[in-house]
């Protein structure tokens, strides 16, 4: 039975992009500070621009005199006008040289603007809260930034090097035509330029929707491709190669359709522009031919007028393309700079000061929190971790254990109550100072696609090789590294996929130990280790935690039996608290979890299917 095809709901980001008005003034104002960094270079580039255009508009004048001097006349002996030929060659050279010098002078401005803007967006993305990064689409975001940076380069280069020079050239040519020939020549030039610009703007505004749609489809296809490749193993586990290819092809098909509409509208624009140019040049040549026939102009003047019109419409024809691309560049830049308008939900309060904690005492005071207002994860949570002590949190999945770690690291702020270090509410101090005090060994460790040494050293950039090796020994990672042919220079692959889960966690532990923080969060830090490795790591963690304040979130209860206090969470509330021995003696929720884990550990491994069948 045929199934009804699934109707896809457009992404909100795409819908927003398709209906967001272009804010030219705001976008250009955002770009201005980058230009103001090099006022001298901008002025120098403009001076070279003017010199190039002055040389260009004088070329037809020299050409006119050359034609007149070389035109045979009765009773006049022809001679080679050497001075005019040299002047013509010199003007050509000055025109080209001024353009090259302009590019050299302004190139640094463009490169620096791209660098500053990309860095600003990159830094801002790191300042945004965890919630933003959990919901973003990496592929589309990367493409938005890439297109925005390219748009800066295009806008700066073509605005300064094409639009301004063309407008200057139009004014100079019209003035020369008016002054030397007839006002009608100037009027034809002005009218044709005006019609050309109005037509180009009108059609370009109409086709902007097609440009945005093509960009949106391009971003969607890129996002799907990157998501699929990042989850390569999952795709293979479920044999969904064809499914992923089909989804990617659906995105490419949507892009193909949007691109076809974009291309048809572009063809209409180009055809209309060609008609205006052809009509304008024909009218100008008709008028000039009449003037020659009436002997009010000579052949040199006719050639000069033709040269002016060709010279005028060559950049003007290019101006249509430039306008379209500038319009696109503004759209891309607005999308990129729009990221800067994203405000983090968790940020430093006005007047926040660095946390100068003398003791690493952690306190949760009547904390309630939910990722959504309609669903609370934590309810009225209160506990304290004294300096140098270890508090463990256990409970079923979804009970809110990891949420406590996120609140302590201040990825989120509580809806009610407060989280304190050494009596200071974390909302009253700077984020950087709080996070500098805390080391985290997460449950799901993601490594950079670099060497083992780089990933360990990330805990303290600039650490010496001896310090890195010491952290590896404490994490019982040195034996594994010694077996590798490239040792610490071994590449771990994309997201660390070339090393096992246990090795990734030991690298994470070494990284946290290298940071040497007074507060340590262990978020199921041994969940990917076998029993032998777990025992070794637990000993290392016990040694590392001796003089630290530790919040340990555990699924395996055997890893936290040494905790000074154990909290049992159920549905966001603390239902039991005490030491391991005291909680077992109570025979409550913790004791039931302990007995359940003992039975799981004692259960024999299932035999292979063929053995069981035998």
Give a written overview of the molecule.
The chain is an alpha/beta fold and 614 residues long. The chain has three domains: 24-340, Up-down Bundle (ABC transporter transmembrane region fold), CATH 1.20.1560.10; 362-437 and 517-604, 3-Layer(aba) Sandwich (Rossmann fold); 447-508, no CATH class. Helices cover 63% and strands 9% of the residues. The chain is built from 20 helices and ten strands. It has helices at 12-19, 24-35, 39-70, 82-127, 130-135, 138-180, 183-230, 232-237, 241-293, 299-340, 401-408, 431-436, 452-457, 465-474, 478-482, 501-515, 531-544, 580-586, 589-602, 609-613; strands at 362-369, 378-385, 390-395, 416-421, 424-425, 438-441, 519-523, 549-553, 565-570, 573-578. The strands form two sheets. A six-stranded mixed β-sheet has the order 6-7-8-3-9-10, sandwiched between helices. α3 packs antiparallel against α4, α14 (465-474) crosses α16 (501-515) and α18 packs across α19. Mean pLDDT is 78; it is low at 1-19 and 606-614.
List keywords for this structure.
single chain, 614 residues, ABC transporter transmembrane region fold, Rossmann fold, 6-stranded mixed sheet, 20 helices, 10 strands, elongated, disordered N terminus, disordered C terminus
Strand order of the largest sheet: 6-7-8-3-9-10
Please tell me the total number of domains. Answer: 3
Total E-strand runs? 10
Name the shape in a single word.
elongated
Give the low-pLDDT segments. Answer: 1-19, 606-614
Structural class: alpha/beta
How many DSSP helices? 20
Please give the share of residues in helix: 55-70%
Assembly state of the chains shown: single chain
Give the termini separation.
Answer: 40 Å
- The CATH H-level superfamily of the largest domain is ABC transporter type 1, transmembrane domain
What is the CATH topology descriptor of the largest domain? Answer: ABC transporter transmembrane region fold
Q: What proportion of the residues form beta strands (DSSP E)?
A: 5-15%
| Radius of gyration, taken over Cα atoms and rounded to an integer in Å | 36 Å
Query: What sequence of helices (H) and strands (E) makes up the elements?
Result: HHHHHHHHHHEEEHEEHEHHHHEHEEEHHH
Q: What is the mean pLDDT? A: 78
């Amino acid at each position: 039975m045929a199934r009804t095809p699934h109707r896809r709901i457009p992404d909100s980001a795409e819908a927003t992009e398709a209906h967001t008005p272009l804010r030219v003034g705001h976008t250009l104002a955002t770009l201005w500070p980058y230009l103001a960094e090099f006022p001298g270079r901008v002025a120098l580039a403009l001076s070279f621009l003017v010199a190039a255009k002055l040389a260009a508009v004088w070329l037809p004048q020299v050409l006119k005199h050359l034609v007149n001097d070389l035109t045979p006349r009765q009773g006049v002996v022809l001679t080679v006008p050497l001075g005019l030929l040299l002047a013509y060659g010199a003007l050509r050279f000055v025109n080209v040289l001024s353009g090259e010098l302009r590019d050299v002078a302004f190139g640094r401005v463009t490169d620096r603007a791209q660098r500053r803007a990309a860095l600003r967006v990159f830094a801002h993305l790191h300042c945004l809260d965890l919630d933003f990064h959990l919901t973003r689409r990496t592929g589309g975001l990367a493409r938005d930034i890439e297109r925005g940076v390219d748009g800066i380069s295009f806008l700066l280069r073509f605005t300064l090097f094409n639009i301004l020079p063309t407008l200057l050239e139009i004014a100079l040519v019209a003035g020369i035509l008016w002054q030397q020939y007839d006002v009608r020549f100037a009027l034809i030039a002005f009218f044709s330029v005006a019609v050309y610009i109005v037509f180009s703007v009108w059609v370009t505004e109409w086709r902007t929707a097609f440009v945005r749609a093509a960009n949106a489809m391009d971003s969607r296809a890129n996002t799907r491709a990157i998501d699929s490749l990042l989850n390569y193993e999952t795709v293979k586990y479920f044999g969904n190669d064809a499914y992923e290819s089909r989804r990617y092809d659906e995105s490419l098909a949507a892009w193909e359709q949007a691109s076809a509409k974009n291309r048809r509208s572009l063809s209409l624009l180009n055809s209309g522009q060609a008609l205006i140019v052809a009509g304008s040049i024909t009218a100008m040549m008709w008028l000039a031919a009449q003037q020659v026939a009436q002997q009010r102009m000579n052949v040199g003047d006719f050639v000069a007028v033709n040269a002016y019109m060709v010279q005028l419409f060559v950049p003007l024809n290019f101006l249509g393309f430039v306008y379209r691309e500038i319009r696109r560049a503004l759209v891309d830049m607005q999308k990129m700079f729009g990221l800067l308008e994203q405000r983090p939900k968790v940020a430093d309060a006005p007047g926040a000061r660095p946390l100068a904690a003398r003791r690493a005492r952690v306190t949760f005071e009547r904390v309630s929190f939910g990722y959504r207002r309609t669903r609370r994860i934590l309810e009225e949570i209160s506990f304290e971790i004294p300096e140098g002590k270890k508090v463990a949190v256990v409970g079923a999945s979804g009970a809110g254990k990891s949420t406590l770690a996120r609140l302590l690291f201040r990825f989120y702020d509580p809806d009610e109550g407060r989280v304190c270090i050494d009596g200071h509410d974390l909302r009253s101090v700077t984020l950087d100072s709080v996070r500098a005090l805390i080391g985290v060994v997460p449950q799901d460790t993601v490594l950079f696609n670099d060497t083992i040494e780089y990933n360990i050293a990330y805990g303290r950039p600039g650490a010496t090789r001896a310090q890195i090796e010491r952290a590896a020994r404490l994490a019982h990672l040195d034996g594994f590294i010694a077996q590798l042919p490239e040792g610490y220079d071994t590449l771990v692959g994309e997201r660390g996929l070339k090393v096992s889960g246990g090795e990734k966690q030991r690298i994470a532990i070494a990284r946290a130990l290298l940071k040497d923080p007074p507060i340590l969060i262990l978020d199921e830090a041994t969940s990917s280790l076998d029993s032998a490795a777990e025992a070794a790591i637990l000993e290392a963690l016990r040694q590392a935690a001796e003089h630290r304040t530790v919040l340990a979130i555990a699924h395996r209860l055997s890893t936290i039996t040494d905790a000074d206090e154990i909290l049992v969470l159920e549905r966001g509330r603390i239902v039991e608290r005490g030491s391991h021995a005291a909680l077992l003696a109570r025979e409550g929720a913790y004791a039931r979890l302990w007995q359940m884990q003992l039975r799981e550990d004692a259960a024999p491994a299932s035999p292979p299917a063929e053995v069981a069948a035998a």
